[in-house]
Amino acid sequence: MRPSDRGARRILIADDQASVLEALRLLLKGEGYQIETAGSPGAVLRALDQYEFNVVLIDLNYARDTTSGQEGLDLLSRIHAMDSTLAVVVMTAWGSVDLAVEAMRRGARDFVQKPWDNARLLTIISTQIELNCSLRKGERLEAETRLLRDEKRPVLIAQSPAMKPILQLIERVGPSDANVFITGEHGTGKGVVARALHAVSDRSPRALVTVNTGGLSEGVFESELFGHVKGAFTDAKTDRVGRFEMADGGTLFLDEIANVPLSQQAKLLRVLETGEFERVGSSKSIKLDVRIISATNADLNREAAAGRFRQDLLFRLNTIEIHLPPLRDRREDIAVLVRYFLGQLTQHYRKNIGGIDEAAMQLLLNHTWPGNIRELNHVIERAVLMAQNNIIRSVDLGLQPARIEARPLDEMSLEEVEIYLIRKTLTRFEGNASKAAEALGLSRSAFYRRLDKYRL
Ligand SMILES: Nc1ncnc2c1ncn2[C@@H]1O[C@H](COP(=O)(O)OP(=O)(O)OP(=O)(O)O)[C@@H](O)[C@H]1O
Ligand SMILES: [Mg+2]
Description:
Elements: E1 10-14, H1 18-29, E2 34-38, H2 41-50, E3 55-59, H3 70-82, E4 87-93, H4 97-105, E5 110-114, H5 118-152, H6 164-173, E6 180-184, H7 190-199, E7 208-212, H8 218-226, H9 243-246, E8 251-255, H10 262-274, E9 276-278, E10 285-287, E11 291-296, H11 300-305, H12 311-317, E12 320-324, H13 334-348, E13 355-356, H14 358-366, H15 372-386, E14 391-392, H16 394-397, H17 414-428, H18 433-439, H19 444-453
Parallel strand pairs: 1-2, 1-3, 3-4, 4-5, 6-11, 6-12, 7-8, 8-11, 13-14
Antiparallel strand pairs: 9-10
Helix pairs in contact: 2-3, 10-12, 13-15, 17-18, 18-19
The structure holds adenosine-5'-triphosphate and magnesium ion (MG).
Magnesium ion binds next to helix 7.
């Protein structure tokens, strides 16, 4: 049992610089808080074992001469794993915005940049203490249940004329068992449409099983989709159910379908034609009732013409095709999407932000959005984290003609160069990830891993 002190609010401060610890201790003690200090990640974990805290304020850099913040991020993850309701506020060096954003993604509640502003720091601490107290009363559980419920019916914002026919299609073909093939650039909402189609069908009480075929190596593709029996190959120690079987009675969403290797396309075709297949290593046929939704941002007709995708499989998949327009062709949706993401993200990060000012909105409306709605979502996320007041302003968006571009190449880190090249190439191919990957000499899955890594 950890001793807990109900009266006073206890704060743990961690930094490897004694002078910083002392300054913060004095500041916070003056406000009537009880303070413990720690000089290293190890000391933080020991203190957490000893006492109950309302807020933990940690620096992200410990080892000298490093600014990567990796030690701090690891510490944050460990604290979060120990007690996910504990409010952690991180301190970062001035200007290391990406680090602060990463920390928030890993569960930090807020961040302060060094050198800190006393008044702002105190506001953050007192807000977090208040939240921490109410959270422990179970509000968190409620919020999570709400989130889970939303998961079933995806929010699909589509008020622009360009999206009208798509809404009609979803309504019309959603309830049928027709195979639907969704195309559109990276980040246009193909995944959302797949979930919407499933949600409006009779199959919605059953599972929507997603397979990211783009992320599977050729070796595991077959057993992932069709399952295997014990002994089918060296690593097959037990029977395994594949995604097709999991989706029985429901919907199977084959994402990034263009990446299915030719050798597996024949097998997929047979399942689609007959509804039957065998687990790897078994001769017993299994018959299933699965509806197939597939998606890609490649031009499958072109892939088929080039002999990289089977034409007959394409015909099976695209009984109905839904093509999602890029965000730049549906600008009427931008303002609505912004308000929606703002609502979601301010709640998620527990920020008090009332809206966005005129100039910032204008920037958003004029941007070309090569990364489409996902990019817009990330821009708003960053803005919510960066906003100093309760309104989002242009500077918070980080949308000024990419700062990176103005710098000479030999001043950039390897990562920055990669990000720069990927952005440029995506813009050149109007967001078409397949073409961009090809131009950069990367496989599609390697390209996607990078998009994911840099959250582009
Ligand atoms: N119409 C929409 N309304 C609200 N949110 C949307 C809409 N479309 C997309 N989003 C959001 O934008 C993000 C990207 O959407 P999604 O993952 O479905 O895109 P995608 O086309 O599947 O991208 P990719 O080609 O990279 O797989 C998600 O966070 C999603 O929730
Ligand atoms: Mg997707």
